[in-house]
Amino acid sequence: MAYRLPPLSTLRVFEAAGRLLSFKAAAEELGITPSAVSHSIQTLEDWLGVPVFVRTNRSLSLSPAGVAYLPRVRDALVALSEATAAVPGRLGGDPLRISVAPTFALRWLLPRLPAFQQANPEVTVSIDTDQRVVEFPRDGFDLAIRMGRGGWASVRAERLVTERLIPVCTPALAARLRTPADLRSVPLLHVVSVREDWRAWAAARGVDALDLRRGLRFDTVHLALDAALQGLGVAIGHKPLTDGTLAGADRADGGLVEVLGPPVASESAYWLVTGNRGPLRPEAARFRDWLFDQLAADRPAS
User: Fold this and answer.
1) 20 to 30 Å CA-CA from 208: which of 41, 112, 231, 291?
2) β 155-169/96-100 pair status
3) What are residue 190's DSSP bridge partners?
């Protein structure tokens, strides 16, 4: 069958420019010049015989033809990308791109990543810890690891691990904490983006008189745990991600100890998120399987 198609490179440029409604932004995303974008769009319009954009001095918008054409071009490009990624035995191509929640990356994934690289030396892994929403496949990521409660539209989400919450602090500070009421006399360390951690722990343990307005506040779990290591107060540990900070003979900083246990289950979990169209490419499927194997090995025996 003979396919009557415009140059495929012009379709890629049209999709980016139509999505971003900016030749400059499309050029930056594609790594070409704005004049090259303009030339590609003109080539496409000449081939189609109709304009796909309405250009003014200060704005760019899709023409009626462009509005109708853009979603079909996007679907076609997605189908081509997925078909290419799913070619059996295709290895050694593009890096395996993973978008990972920062705390999961730092506290759990990075210490274990050498094991994956040793078993899969031909796979190049690229990790991004930006917390923006990932759009599959447009953003180019194979997998994402996110914290939340699941139920997201237009993606597949598999639960990796449910967090368990428990206060942690230095051994010196722990000596002052015998009951939850003792928390009233020590600084509490909060993470502004995870406001429910202390509240959820207190509710689960039936602690009613804890003033959650006081204490120090940080923008990441990592900083809150570092503050706890410095003896600045008591933080909420998120197991299993914070297990690596616990006191042990191999820790020069003395580490942290869990207090006022046992841990309580959080309503949130870490999820492995992928696009909902087509199979994973081989590298991504291999990483997924490795990830679940590692989590199963970490899980304490019942």
Assistant:
1) 231
2) unpaired
3) 217
Is pLDDT at 183 greater than 60 in this prediction?
Answer: yes
Per the CB < 8 A criterion, the answer to whether 13 and 22 are in contact is no
Judged against a pLDDT cut of 90, whether residue 68 lies above it is answered with yes
Element (H, E) at 46: helix 34-48
Confidence of residue 54 (pLDDT cuts 50, 70, 90): very high
Task: Give the position of tokens 């971003």.
Answer: 20
What is the DSSP code (8-state) at residue 107? Answer: I
SS3 89: coil
* DSSP secondary structure, 246-302, as one string: B--TT-TT--BEE-S-S-EEEEEEEEEEEESSSPPPHHHHHHHHHHHHHHHHHSPP-
What CATH number matches the domain at 8-85, 1.10.10.10, 1.10.10.60, 3.30.450.20, 3.90.870.10?
1.10.10.10
Domain residue limits, the chain: 8-85, 96-161+268-298, 162-266
Collapse the DSSP code of 217 into the 3-class scheme (helix H, G, I; strand E, B; otherwise coil) and give the result: strand
Per-residue pLDDT band for 1 (boundaries 50, 70, 90) equals: low
Residue 73 and residue 67 in contact, taking contact as beta carbons nearer than 8 Å: no
DSSP characters for 114-137? HHHHHH-TTPPEEEE---SPP-TT
Element (H, E) at 214: none
Cβ neighbours of residue 24 under 8 Å, at least 6 residues apart?
34
Q: Can you name the CATH fold of 96-161+268-298?
A: D-Maltodextrin-Binding Protein; domain 2 (3.40.190)
Q: Which of 131, 127, 135, 166 is nearest to 147 (CA)?
A: 131
Give the residue among 173, 100, 174, 167 at the shortest CA–CA distance from 134. 100
The CATH classification number of 162-266 equals 3.40.190.10
